[in-house]
Amino acid sequence: MKIRVFDADxxxxxxxxxxxxxxxxxxxxxxxxxxxxxxxxxxxxxxxDGRESRGHFATGIxxx
Length: 64
Fold this sequence. Notes:
Helix content: 10-25%
Distance between the termini: 9 Å
Shape: globular
């Protein structure tokens, strides 16, 4: 499934908030969905550039 995820690594490199943070939402593919010990739904994703990111909160994604 294709989704849009906030790319915190890119956000840190740019220097955090730039006013309009929409450019930090990047397309990614869900690799795995799971529930943590606090009953939160988390996602492991793979960005289009090949980077992988683990533990994104499912409430903080955008369905493409």
